[in-house]
Amino acid sequence: xxxxxxxxxxxxxxxxxxxxxxxxxxxxxxxxxxxxxxxxxxxxxxxxxxxxxxxxxxxxxxxxxxxxxxxxxxxxxxxxxxxxxxxxxxxxxxxxxxxxxxxxxxxxxxxxxxxxxxxxxxxxxxxxxxxxxxxxxxxxxxxxxxxxxxxxxxxxxxxxxxxxxxxxxxxxxxxxxxxxxxxxxxxxxxxxxxxxxxxxxxxxxxxxxxxxxxxxxxxxxxxxxxxxxxxxxxxxxxxxxxxxxxxxxxxxxxxxxxxxxxxxx
Length: 265
Prior knowledge:
Elements: E1 5-9, E2 14-19, H1 30-43, E3 51-56, E4 66-68, H2 73-77, H3 81-99, E5 105-109, E6 112-114, H4 116-123, E7 126-130, E8 134-136, H5 150-158, H6 160-169, E9 173-174, H7 175-180, E10 186-188, H8 193-205, H9 209-222, H10 227-241, H11 245-256
Parallel strand pairs: 2-3, 3-5, 4-6, 5-7, 6-8, 7-10
Antiparallel strand pairs: 1-2, 8-9
Helix pairs in contact: 1-3, 3-4, 4-5, 5-6, 9-10
C-alpha cells in the first residue's frame, strides 16, 4: 500500500479509501493514481466489500481542506509531452477502474475538489459534500480540457447545457449550488460529513449485495443505450438475483417479520 492512499476496511462491509497528500491538497500524482487504481481493482473482486467511500485526508489546523485539487502541476511541469499523455491516460484509466467497482462508490467531498478531483467524484456513484466544499472543472483556465472523463460524465449528471457552462467558464461552485444542480446528492456540515457518507453507505450495505451490484450494472450500462436494448439488459440483471440464497432469505424474513441477514450468496 502506498503512503499516498490509506485503506480502512471496516467490519460492516464499508471500505474507506483516503487520498493522503494533505500537504499538497491531495493533488493527484503518478504514485497516488496508481495506488487508487490498484485498490479499485482489488475492491472489484472482494466479496466482503459492499460499499466504497473515497475521501481526502485533512491537513493540520488552519490549512485549507481538500478532497483533491486535481493533477499535481509541480510534477507535471517537469514532464515531457509523452509523459503528460501517459499521465492523462493513467488518470482516465483510474477513473474507469473506480467507476467499474462492482459495488456502489460514494465520494465524501470534504473540501476543494477541482479538476481531476471533481472528475474523481464524477466517477463515483454518489457524492456527499461538506458544506465548505468547492467543486469545478477548471482545466480551460489552464489552457487544456478535462482529460479524466469530465467532459463525458458531467453532462450525464447535470445536463449538457449546464456542463458546457461550467467547463467553458472553468467556474467553481459551492456545495449548495452543486446540490441544486444535482452534482451532489447530499450536503453535510464538515464535522458530520463522514457520518453522513457512512450512514448512506450503511443504508446500501443493508440490502442484498448481489441485488445492489446488479442494479448498478443495469443503471450504468442501461442508461447508455436505447430503451429497447436496456429493458432486456435489466431482465438479465434481474435473472441473476432469482437463484440467490439472499432472495429466499428476504422472503423468509418478510414472512417471519424480521430483518433479513444477507450474505451475498
